[in-house]
Amino acid sequence: MPATAFQRVLTPLIHVLAWGLLALALLLFQPSAGHVVLPTQYWAKQGVLLLMWLAAFYLTTRVSVPRLLLRGRNGWFVLALAGTAATVLLLSSALEQALHLPELMREAFHAADAAAGRLPRPPRPTGAGRPVLGNRFDLVNLLITLLVLGIATAITMVQHWQQEARLRERLDQQRVEAELALLKAQINPHFFFNTLNNIYSLTLIDGERARAALHRLSRMMRYVLYDTASGEALLSQEVAFIQDYINLMQLRLTDRVQVVFEHPEPVSEARIAPMLLLPFVENAFKHGVAATQASRIYISLRQPAPGQLDIEVRNTLFAKLSTDLAGSNGIGLANTRRRLDLLYPGHYALQVTEHTPDNEFEVKLELGIAG
User: Fold this and answer.
1) What mean pLDDT do residues 311-322 have?
2) Which of 192, 212, 316, 338 is deepest in the core (most CB within 10 A)?
3) Is 316 helix (H, G, I), strand (E, B) or coil?
């Protein structure tokens, strides 16, 4: 059973159990004075008192707490609780007088004393007020009333906090899903545009290579649109995607650019977030290539242990060229870090070196992935 459905069933069960125990306590609670035969009016009064406590409970849970306490009107809430308790006690006292319960209780105790052979109690002086038994009952009723109001307040507040927690959880989940979808969808659109232009130019000089390039591009688009819909992909699919990306990018490169892509053969299969490696590779091609100078791009994937993936990307640095992954094109370093934080919290180590001794921009990522 889902947690929300379980909570919907549990709440009424708690109410039924609480009121069942309270009703049982009222039935079992009797004045301790020997074998006293309590009048019917006593039980009628107890039944009405139970109903008043029930009304006070739901008045607090449905009105006082939601409309006063949860809206910050604490003073009015305290006054509402005091008014509710006073109303219950006044109605209880009025009901006792209407049923002549004090006189009936005295008669019941006198009858019990006479049956036990004890001396009869001296008569109370006129105007002495209510009997001591009645005062004791008022104190008990007051404590139970306050307990009922306290339980009602506590239950309502706990339910409110639970609802807020579930709402925050749903909103956080929706926000994370929307953010991940946006980050995943931010593959450089200029890549597709430039690749199509390169393929068009290639058709004029080498139709076979143009057909192979179109096949690679369609395979990449199918991977982006369909294979990544579940939010996870096989590592072999990600490697093939990177390989296709490199092959298509090389269509516009000259022999001055050396591209090296090292990866296990075969790959030890694992699940990985799709297009997680693309920003680093895309950045290398964006900033590590010059039209008139020799350059090198090195991409390495290693699996030193089961569930461990090491990525290293290096590209040549050129003067007056920014190597900021957060550039206008590509996902960017900041977004990549954010995606890693969302998907692999505490299971990755990302190191970015903007200028190595070999005049290269270097990115190293150690990632713990599921098998």
Assistant:
1) 79
2) 316
3) strand
